[in-house]
Write a structure and sequence with these properties.
Layout (H helix, E strand, L loop, with lengths): L9 H16 L6 H8 L3 H13 L3 E3 L6 E3 L2 H10 L2 H18 L2 E8 L3 E8 L14 E3 L6 H5 L3 H13 L6 H17 L2 E5 L4 H15 L9 H16 L10 E9 L5 E10 L8 H18 L15
Antiparallel strand pairs: 1-2, 3-4, 3-8, 4-5, 6-7, 7-8
C-alpha cells in the first residue's frame, strides 16, 4: 500500500519503509517496480535509495533478477537492538525446551527505554494450534502486559513507570491502582504473572474470559471478588481497544517470569502463550513453576541474581 511520508528527512523515512516492506515479504525478494508500488514512491527515487542501502550493506541486490533482500548489516543491528548478547543467547537456548515442555509458544521480551516490551526471540512448540508471536512486536509497559515489571521494580523505577502509565491514560481511577497493588503482591508471592488478551470477536471473547476467570478463582488464580474479576475484564477490554496485545481469533493466555542481571534488575521477560481454551485454570500453577524455573536458570547462566526484598518498591 502506498504510504504518505511526512518527515523532515523523507529519504530516510522511505528507506525505513523499504526495509519494513522487505522484512514483511521475506523470504520473497522484490524488485524496484514492486517496492516503488508498495511504498508509493517514483521508480527513479526508489532506485537511488535502494542503491544507497545496498552500498551500506543494508540490502543485497540479486545480480540475476535485480531483486532486493535484507543485507548482513541488519543482522548486527538487530542483535544490538535485542540487548546484551549473552542474555539473548541464554534465552534463545532455553526457549525450545520451554516451548516443548509447555506445549505452547515461548517468547523472550526485552524492556525498552520508552516503556515498552519488544519480542526478541520466539519459538513455537510442536503442539497443534500455536500462537505466533512475531519478533519485533512491541507492547506498552502497562498492565496487564507490564505488571511483571512493576512487581520487581525499585521504588524509583516503579514511580517512573506509574507516571508513564498515567500519562498514557491507563489509570482511569483509584481502583486501577488498588488492583495493581493486589496483582503485584500476587506476582511477588509466586514469581510469575499472567494475563489474557481478547480475541477479534470481542463479545464472544468476553464471555469465554468471564467463564475462565470464574473457574480460576477456585484454584487461587486471579481476583477473588466477583466485582474485581469484572473489573479485570474491563481492563483487558481497554487494552484491546487500544489495539495492544496479540491479534488472534480467540482469547490468548500469557504467563511470564523475570530474568535478572547481576544488580537484580529485571532485564528480560520469559513468557509462554497459548489460546485460552488450551489452558484450564488448574494448569496455571504448573506452567508458572515451569517458566520460573527456566527464568532462574537463565539468570544463573548470565551471573544474575534475584533482587532482595529491601530493593523492591514498597506497596502502600
Amino acid at each position: 500500500m502506498p504510504t504518505n511520508i511526512k518527515s523532515s528527512a523523507p529519504a530516510v523515512a522511505y528507506a525505513v519503509q523499504f526495509l519494513q516492506v522487505l522484512r514483511s515479504a521475506a523470504p520473497e525478494q522484490l524488485g524496484v517496480s514492486e517496492l516503488s508500488r508498495r511504498v508509493g514512491l517514483g521508480k527513479a527515487s526508489t532506485y537511488r535509495i535502494l542503491t544507497t542501502l545496498v552500498d551500506q550493506g543494508c540490502l543485497i541486490l540479486n545480480p540475476l533478477d535485480k531483486t532486493y533482500s535484507l543485507g548482513p548489516v541488519l543482522i548486527a543491528l538487530g542483535d544490538a537492538a535485542s540487548g546484551s548478547s549473552d542474555v539473548l543467547d541464554a534465552a534463545r537456548s532455553a526457549l525450545p525446551a520451554l516451548a516443548e515442555d509447555s506445549k505452547l509458544t515461548a517468547t523472550a521480551y526485552r524492556l525498552l527505554p520508552d516503556a515498552h516490551l519488544v519480542a526478541v526471540a520466539s519459538v513455537s512448540s510442536s503442539g497443534p494450534f500455536q500462537v505466533v508471536q512475531p519478533v519485533g512486536k512491541t507492547f506498552p509497559l502497562v498492565p496487564p502486559m507490564g505488571t511483571l515489571e512493576y512487581a520487581f521494580a525499585s521504588a524509583a523505577r516503579l514511580t517512573a513507570m506509574l507516571a508513564a502509565a498515567e500519562a498514557q491514560g491507563f489509570f482511569k481511577n483509584d481502583v486501577d491502582k488498588e488492583m495493581l497493588e493486589e496483582d503485584i503482591q500476587w506476582i511477588r508471592d509466586r514469581g510469575y504473572s499472567w494475563s489474557i488478551s481478547l480475541g477479534i470477536n470481542r463479545d464472544v471473547s468476553r464471555t469465554e474470559v468471564r467463564t475462565w476467570l470464574n473457574q480460576a478463582e477456585k484454584f487461587g488464580v486471579g481476583r477473588k471478588e466477583p466485582s474485581a474479576r469484572a473489573y479485570y475484564l474491563e481492563q483487558i477490554g481497554r487494552f484491546a481497544e487500544d489495539e495492544h496485545g496479540i491479534l488472534a481469533p480467540a482469547p490468548i493466555f500469557g504467563l511470564a517470569a523475570p530474568v535478572f542481571d547481576v544488580q537484580g534488575n529485571n532485564i528480560l521477560h520469559l513468557a509462554i502463550h497459548g489460546f485460552l481454551n488450551q489452558i484450564p485454570p488448574e494448569r496455571v500453577s504448573e506452567l508458572g513453576n515451569l517458566t520460573v524455573a527456566t527464568a532462574r536458570r537463565i539468570t544463573a547462566d548470565i551471573g544474575g541474581r534475584e533482587p532482595l526484598p529491601r530493593e523492591l518498591a514498597r506497596l502502600s
